[in-house]
Amino acid sequence: MVPLSYYMILSAIVFVTGVVGVLIRRNIIMILLSIELMLNATNINFVAFSYYRTTSRGRSSSSSR
Amino acid sequence: MATLSFLYLGTVIALTAILVVAFRKPVYSVMALLVMFFHIAGLFVTLHAEFLAAVQIIVYAGAILVLYLFVVMLLNVKEDDSYQRQVKLGLGLGLLALTQVVYIVSTAGAPEELVREKTAPVAGNTETIGHALYTTYLFPFEVASLILLVAMIGAILLAKKGIMGPEAGPLKESK
After folding, report:
1. Model confidence at B79: pLDDT above 90
2. Count of A–B CB contacts within 8 Å?
3. How far is the C-alpha of A40 from the C-alpha of B56, rounded, in Å?
4. What fold characterizes domain A4-63?
5. Strand ranges (DSSP E) for B40-126?
6. Is the pLDDT of residue B70 over 50?
7. Neighbours of A50 (CB within 10 A)
8. Residue A58 contacts residue A46 (beta carbons within 8 Å)
9. Residue B83: phi, psi to the nearest 5?
């Protein structure tokens, strides 16, 4: 059983990578790709919380992005 | 088994996320992002969110990445000058934020209620999501659809010249 904090740390890694990409890349398309990284990091968090809370709240808010 | 699959998926997700930012050619970045989306879908399957895994593959890998690929190929983006000057500063700030988050998560620990009960009944995945979206979260759902409508109309206005009058785009109205 994987603890919830592992998912949060993975999501934090992906999110920070996206932030660094927005900061250091110059191309507008690369900035948009980094924003996609950040959005997916939040989705990982939503789904992990929804699984560990056994509700469908996180999944429903993650599916209406 | 669950730990092993999480380790594999997590390592690939983190590595490809870093590669997306690190690659100099935008096409390679899009390909790395494609691998990352598929592994995130796998992670969703291990978290029993099968509907979201399907949506992840269909919408992200099928629609958004193809859109990015078209833009990259049509604009013919050069691979030079792709980094800003403050690479060191950005990396330092990122490391600082990451250590903060890891420190907070590892010291806080999971509250007691966040331990998953094994015996929770799970209805159909799509069914529960649809029910929650159309009952509890009806208002945010409609607001999101309104925002998407505004974005669509804005894209049409920006893209089509002369829709607001003879050869004056919407951006030139202030003259």
Report:
1. no
2. 168
3. 9
4. Helix Hairpins (1.10.287)
5. none
6. yes
7. 22
8. yes
9. -110, 145
CA dist B61 and A20 (Å) reads 23
Reported as a pLDDT band with limits 50, 70 and 90, residue B175 is very low
Residue A24 near residue B100 (C-beta atoms within 8 A): no
Tell me, what's the pLDDT at B128? Answer: 84
Q: Which chain A positions have a beta carbon within 8 Å of B3's beta carbon?
A: 1-2
ipTM of the complex: 0.83
Class level of CATH domain B1-78: mainly alpha
Residues paired with B118 in a beta bridge: none
Q: What is the CA angle B154-A35-A63, rounded to 5? A: 75
Place of tokens 């003879």: B166
Tokens of B95: 């490391």
Q: Which of B2, B49, B82 sits opposite A1 (nearest CB)?
A: B2
Whose tokens are 């109309």? That residue is B153
CB atoms B29 and A33 under 8 Å = yes
